[in-house]
Design brief:
disordered C terminus; signal; MFS_dom; Growth Hormone, Chain: A
């Protein structure tokens, strides 16, 4: 059996990685669409005339809708499948992204961001569920890390593209151009994607590799059943505690760099690109690290949490960023923190598929994402109020740097061994 393993591995196809590439493209577009406002915020603030607190309300509108959307998206995707569920989500967010071009006031941006949040909420539940359908557990963290890198690619593309488009045709054109990318992806998804068993380009060997984990229960799990398990709460807690830090970087990084280092629309791009390039490396490295630990013989529990600890320690030095006078040293600290966050996310997003059957993964991800968005709303309100009253980021970055180690402790207390959740559900007719 051992001697035949290399030969079997050599015959395993790679179509599942093409699916991962589609998820990478969708996540990239997702973050391009949401990051346009983050790039233009310091300059739209002058044109529209919003205050720090009003900008916090605009950000909170997106997060509130994102939270609501995640609660619905997970259930919809689990019910209708990834192909249709993903298509519905990206249709909504494409229209909403382009709808920003119609906004001319704080209220207009609040409405546009709310609609965008509803649509974009479907991306991660759909992508994580797709990974659970297409990859065995030992490959999932790497696959999640790869598609999650799209969040950084999108955040790199946005500061490259948005200032050029805005300078040439106005800020409205930036929203229109980026929103159109979603529609292109939608056509490709609907024409190319099928589940593994229905995809003719998947070999029998690759399908066997995809399904090489022990069989999972096919019983549909109601939400109330999910929330009775500590494993679900470990994921919810991880998202609630650490997602707000990512929201902080996403929507306030441009404002922080502009206010602290005097950057303009023409000069803000390179520092933001460096930060998100570092985050890209962290996203893939965090997923790779857990797999590497498992190849060394570590248990799933030890490997996953070991990788999360490394990532958490990478975030901690960001507490010093407000004491730094040099722009590029500040960029390095923030970039390291964002790399740590993305590596952390690559592992946290695999927790639902580590502990729950595929039929429940999108719902668990949706519930956790809801918690993360609620935490993000609280962070946005706090950040806006803190900046309005003191103008200082010190307390904000202190919270950000300490969140991940605290979250890891909570995860370990709730799921000390990452054991699969056990369900005793009746297999009744129509269940």
């Amino acid at each position: 059996m051992t001697a035949s393993t290399p030969a079997v591995a050599a015959r395993v196809g790679k179509f599942r990685w093409r699916v991962c590439a589609m998820l990478l493209a969708a996540t990239t577009i997702n973050y391009i669409d949401r990051q346009v406002l983050g790039v233009l915020a310091p300059f739209l603030q002058d044109e529209i005339g919003w205050s720090e607190i009003e900008y916090g309300y605009i950000v909170m509108a997106f997060q509130a809708a994102y939270a609501i959307g995640l609660l619905c998206a997970g259930a919809v995707i689990d019910r209708f499948g990834t192909r249709i569920g993903y298509a519905l989500a990206i249709s909504i967010w494409s229209l909403a992204a382009m709808g920003h071009a119609l906004a001319a006031s704080v209220l207009g941006f609040i409405l546009a961001r709310f609609a965008l949040g509803l649509g974009e909420a479907g991306n991660f539940p759909a992508a994580v569920k797709t990974v659970a359908e297409w990859f065995p557990k030992r490959e999932r963290a790497l696959a999640v890390g790869i598609f999650n890198a799209g969040s950084n690619i999108g955040a790199i593309v946005a500061p490259l593209m948005v200032p050029i488009v805005a300078a040439a045709w106005g800020w409205q054109a930036a929203f229109l151009c980026t929103g159109a990318l979603s529609a292109i992806w939608l056509v490709v998804w609907l024409t190319r994607y099928r589940p593994p068993e229905q995809q003719p380009r998947v070999s029998a060997e690759e399908l066997a590799h995809i399904r090489s984990d022990p069989p999972e229960s096919t019983v549909k799990v109601p939400w109330l059943q999910l929330l009775q398990h500590r494993q679900a709460w470990s994921f919810v807690a991880a998202k609630f505690i650490t997602d707000p830090v990512w929201w902080l970087f996403l929507f306030w990084l441009g404002k922080f760099l502009a206010s602290e280092y005097g950057l303009s629309l023409a000069t803000i791009g390179p520092p933001m690109i460096v930060v998100y390039l570092m985050a890209d490396v962290g996203s893939i490295a965090g997923g790779w690290l857990a797999g590497r630990f498992m190849r060394l013989g570590w248990s799933l529990n030890r490997a996953r949490k070991g990788a999360m600890l490394v990532c958490a320690l990478c975030v901690a030095p960001v507490v010093l960023v407000t004491q730094v006078d040099n722009l590029w040293l500040a960029v390095g600290l923030i970039g390291l923190a964002m790399a740590g966050h993305q590596g952390w996310s690559a592992n946290v997003f695999t927790l639902p598929s580590d502990m729950f059957p595929r039929q429940a993964v999108a719902s668990v991800v949706g519930i956790g994402g809801f918690a993360g968005s609620v935490g993000g709303m609280a962070m946005s309100f706090f950040t806006g109020a803190q900046l309005q009253s003191t103008g200082s980021y010190s307390t904000i970055f202190l919270i950000a740097g300490s969140a991940y180690v605290f979250a890891l402790v909570v995860v370990h207390l709730l799921a000390p061994r990452l054991e699969p959740a056990r369900f005793e559900l009746p297999r009744a007719n129509g269940a």
